[in-house]
Amino acid sequence: MYTKAVLVSLFLAAVGTHAAPALEARQDPAIPLSIYEGGGCQGNVITTAFIPTDGSCFGFSPILSQPTDSARIDLANALPTGCTLTVFNTANCSPQGNNFPITNEGQCGTFGTGNPLDTFIRAARVSGTCT
User: Fold this and answer.
1) N or C: which end of the chain has fewer CB within 10 A?
2) What pTM was estimated for this model as a whole?
């Protein structure tokens, strides 16, 4: 009986008002980059990449559904003033590949089907004042 009383007391203390708060996952700010099938940011969004605002390179696998793809920021006020999101056709954000900057929401970019290096979006990163 004594053991049950101790266990009940411990349980009530754990779920009472003095219990430790639950831990929540920390989520860094990110800018949602919509990636479309084909050029021109038309039709279906095939994925959304959440590009971290800390300036690190965010690489991802290309989606090979069309001869090329395109990207833009569709969410209003997602790109802070003074922040540029640069999209790369290399997985490590290498400046030796091709890239295009996005400086405002709604601005569409693509490498196009005539690009001799690579026509697919493989990475992105931000620069400037992005927090």
Assistant:
1) N
2) 0.76
